[in-house]
Amino acid sequence: MAEALEFYFDFSSPYGYLAAEKIDELAAKYGRKVKWRPVLLGVIFKATGAAPLTEVPMKGEYSKMDFVRSARFMGIPYNPPSRFPLPTQVAARAYYWLHERDCGMARAFARAVYRAFFVDDRDISNPDVVMDIAAAAGADRAALAAGVETPEIKDRLKAEVAAAIAKGVFGSPYIVCDGEPFFGADRLPQLEARLAGKVF
Predict the structure, then answer these.
(1) What is the pTM of this model?
(2) Are strands 174-177 and 5-9 parallel, antiparallel or unpaired?
(3) What is the set of domains in the chain, with CATH numbers?
């Protein structure tokens, strides 16, 4: 069976959100699966010396406009959040805790977190909001609330971020297909061409 795509993303990444809305359908079209791997851009930026796009002079204003334009071009609902960026540790830990128990539920949760932030302007840095989203996806709220605070799941997220950095992940979305990385939602057409076996 063909190797699964690896999809690295941060829940506070607008371009990660856009890719998340398309990646599974695109992969399935070519008989592939996707491994969703939430990471923390704050940690990655410390390792690379980068900063959130919106905080970079001149590029920041452009990026805000481009988030909206890219979403419109891709046919994806997008409402610029009133607080941006936000810490996403709890959401990422919740994903990995859920994934250990129910992969499908974890995937549904991830999409719901993205939409809560980039469509409904909910504060996904708030643990109560994250638990509400998870409960709506079918999770046991109390068990998850306890689970995200365990040393094991905290260490799991740290290990995932460290492994991503070691692999060269420097932003979100970062998609690896058969060892070849594709960075950014605007690279999905190139990714599709690669999946289709086109040489370019």
Answers:
(1) 0.96
(2) antiparallel
(3) 5-195 (3.40.30.10)
Find where tokens 């250990």 sit: 100
Report in angstroms the alpha-carbon separations of 181 from 164, 168, 194, 200.
12, 9, 11, 15
- Asked if residues 121 and 81 have their Cβ atoms less than 8 Å apart, the reply is yes
Coil vs helix vs strand at 71: helix
Work out the mean pLDDT of the chain and round it to a whole number.
Answer: 96
Model confidence pLDDT, tens digit, residues 155-199: 999 999 999 999 999 999 999 999 999 999 999 999 999 999 987
Given the structure tokens 């690279």, which residue do they identify?
Answer: 187
Output the furthest CA–CA distance in the chain (Å, rounded): 50
